[in-house]
Amino acid sequence: MNISKKQLLGLGLVAAIASVQANAKEFSYTYVEGGFSDVDIDNTDADYIYGGGSLALDRNIFVRGSLGNLDVNKNLEFDTVSIGVGHPMKMSERSDLVLALDYSFAESDSKNPAWDNADIDTLTGSVTSRTWLTNNVEGNLMGGLAHQDADFGGTDTGAILGAGVRVYVVPQFSLAANISRSFIGDLDTDEIGVSARLQF
Predict the structure, then answer these.
(1) 25-59 confidence digits (pLDDT tens)
(2) Residue 179's domain spans which residues?
(3) For residue 126, what is the domain's CATH number?
(4) pLDDT tens for residues 108-150?
(5) I need a labelling partner for 10 at 20 to 30 A (CA). Which of 52, 92, 152, 178 fits?
(6) Strands, E, within the chain: which ranges?
(7) Quick one: signal sequence residues (predicted)?
(8) 111: DSSP letter
């Protein structure tokens, strides 16, 4: 039986499409993770470290939370707590769109009495895309709107934008790099971070 080059090419394309569909995987929303970020707050450098996790209640909803510490300088740091809820929606065989609402609370610890025990409350609504770029690399894009109430800065609302790449070393364990920028009030914040995740 003779097979032409065009037929071979067509069979190759069908096999490639079938392979992509066969290898498309569900995204997990149950995991534990930890990370570190370099933060620039209006030209002031800070370090942020956190640990947290997420629990899928079913395919349509998950809850998540984290504890962290933002070290601005030797005289000022913030302890942070974040809790949130999300709703993932399957957009294609390789993409999810996640709607989320998160509340975070930060309290300062400072040798300067004017900055000690200052609170920052933030409510953030966000939309994040999760897409398989390859069978072990995930790409993320995020956009959101945050409303912040700070003891020392009043109330402000602004946008948050972010992007990231996650590499799955094995199916349950991944490493990620992320960048984000927020525009809340007069303090623009840039963040570059790395994290590790163990999913279930």
Answers:
(1) 899 999 999 999 999 988 889 999 999 999 999 99
(2) 28-199
(3) 2.40.128.130
(4) 988 777 677 889 999 999 999 999 999 999 999 999 999 999 8
(5) 92
(6) 31-41, 44-58, 61-73, 76-92, 95-110, 119-132, 137-150, 154-170, 173-184, 187-199
(7) 1-24
(8) S
How many domains, in total, are found in the chain?
Answer: 1
In angstroms, the Cα distances linking 182 to 16, 94, 105, 132, 161 are 40, 28, 17, 26, 6
Residue 2 lies in a domain: no
Q: Is residue 9 part of a domain?
A: no
Residue 3 lies in a domain: no
**d(Cα 111, Cα 74) in Å, to the nearest integer?**
9
Residue in the block written with tokens 């090419």:
9
Q: Do 163 and 142 form a contact (C-beta atoms < 8 A)?
A: yes
Euclidean distance between CA atoms 32 and 83, whole angstroms: 14
Residue at token pair 């067509």: 10
Structure-block tokens of residue 161: 């934008």
> Roughly how many angstroms between the first and final C-alpha of the chain, as a whole number?
49
Nearest alpha-carbon partner for 25 in 132, 169, 130, 128: 132
The size of the chain, in residues, is: 200
Examine residue 17 and state whether it is found in any structural domain, yes or no.
no
Of 147, 82, 146, 69, residue with least CA distance to 108: 69
Q: Are 185 and 152 a contacting pair, CB within 8 Å?
A: no
